[in-house]
Amino acid sequence: MKNRNFIKQKFKILCLLIFLALAFIVSVYVFEGSTYFRMGWNAGADRAKAENAGKDAFESYAINVIPSDLTKFPDSVFNQKQHVWTPSIHDKLFVKAPVYTHSYLRTLLTVSEIMFVGIIILIISVFIKFIININKNIVFDKKNVSILRRIGIYHLLGVFFNFMSTYTDFRIIKKIIAIPDYEIKLNGAVESGMLIIGLIALLMAEVFAIGIKLQEEQDLTV
Amino acid sequence: MIIVNLDVVMAMRKISSGELAERLGITQANLSILKTGKAKAIRFSTLEAICKELKCQPGDILEYRENEINI
Prior knowledge:
The complex is a heterodimer.
Chain A: H1 2-52, E1 58-67, E2 75-79, E3 84-88, E4 92-98, H2 103-135, H3 142-176, E5 182-185, H4 192-219
Antiparallel strand pairs in A: 1-4, 1-5, 2-3
Chain B: E1 2-4, H1 6-13, H2 17-24, H3 28-35, H4 44-54, H5 58-61, E2 62-64
Helix pairs in contact in B: 2-3
């Protein structure tokens, strides 16, 4: 009984740490999201103004680049400490370019991003259900196997939708931006952390399923 | 599959489930699991106690039958 309480206490501490990590990630997403929302809002307002004035509308694109020739430094920046121009390589850039209005890619990007956010909300809600079950001493139960399988599948779907949005964004950028001496690269398309967590959750679900079978056998041993 | 003939032996010995469960030191629910063939396993200690109480051999209680699907 003492051992069981100790295990439960350890479990509660782990849950608390996971919740803190989730809260941190969510707050970062909310902060970044609000910044991008503000940028998007301003860009939309600028675009409307430009369209009304009969001018071309522009928006900001975040792009990842790599030099075509890695031995050369195609750019330079001013080093204020030594007051000299020094060779440099850009890795990430924010570029203002005309608004890309191709409806198919735009729709795909928006749908993928909305689905990704939805998946994150689903993962959090299912995880909360899992913790509630454990706190109610429902551990080796078919409900938890189903919850863990859902967590795993949602993570894999999250990886898919993240890939879709990143790849669509990359395709849009490739259509409207080209920088001399640089190649635009597809970066962070596969959320490796999410992929590993998803696979581990699926593995855990199978471990729980085996646990339930063992418990069933134990219960039916006379 | 393995068939448990405990109910047959109990009927022959004219002993009730409650009495046997008490003598074996197991619950009536567990004895019922054994009698109805729902048990996945039986401990040697339980089998030994049953044989001792019912004065029989393990073969009188357990029987192997071919071509029967275990549900």
